[in-house]
From TrEMBL:
It comes from Runella slithyformis (strain ATCC 29530 / DSM 19594 / LMG 11500 / NCIMB 11436 / LSU 4). This is DUF4292 domain-containing protein. It comes from the Bacteria. The lineage of its organism: Bacteria, Pseudomonadati, Bacteroidota, Cytophagia, Cytophagales. Pfam families: DUF4292. Keywords: Membrane, Transmembrane, Transmembrane helix.
Amino acid sequence: MKVKVPFLNKLFVDVCRVFFGYSRARTSFSNKNLRFYFINCGVIIPILLFSACHRPRQKTAAAPAADSLTAVVAKDTVTLSRKDSTAVIAPTPEPEEPKVNVNVETVDFKYLTARSKISFKSKDQDIDNANVNIRMLKDSVLWLSIVAGPIEVVRGLITRDSIQIVDRYHKEYYLYDFNTLSQKFNFQLNFELIQSILIGNMPIPKKENQRFKKEKDYFMLRQQEGKIMLENYIGEQNHRLKKLLVTEQPTKNSLTLNYDDFTQLNNYLFPYTSLIQLDYQSQKDNQLYQTVFRIKHQKVELSEKPVNFPFSIPQKYERK
């Protein structure tokens, strides 16, 4: 596989135009465009699923679609006159759809290893099949290695309180913590959130008093977390999370995550394909754009056998 364009860096640039106003674009590996290669795939992509955007958008009135999940039909009050008195008849309330309790199936494990392919497509980029190796210790460590051809370009290590990235191509490294990222995105980010996204579990656990609503072939649970609205769509047959819609309410920028290719793995159904679609309005030209990112696992193993997470920062590397 030959990577001609730094697609993950381009994805980072596209997203930064939405969230941070970042407009510098790099166009080749030789022009130092692998700087944020790991951030885009291993950290920023999962985090964006639940990050709060702050870009103002001009509000326009639009009638809700007929099949919209939030469409509301308003009925006018009917007033009848009889002699010198007026009787007001209140509209008959529509019956609420019954709410149901659903036992959502999740993936449980101690150690996870995966070999995967990642693809990226935007209005001016179309790249397929870059390689990423993933290792994870549940609730503790996430390790990623991204390679271009036979060469490892970036290695990253995410723990419960830190994110470390080594850029071997430019001999640089980056250090982050979740508190800093949470303040930047105005949303509480943590290790559990990233872990849930990668394995196909609901990112926010269902509360005791929450109930699902039947929507065609899904059970849907709507959750509000700050300015973020999440809609979880659980498969009617397998009770696994099959679709997640995240909307930042002031801007209406949205991110949709679809899980597919559910395959029996140990005692669980594991989604071998994840498709992420980012729809946003550019701050630069106010045009609507779409970026698509796909993760397709080639091999996944869940085991009790420990795995290694080799990681070190060479002394000569410069911190960025």
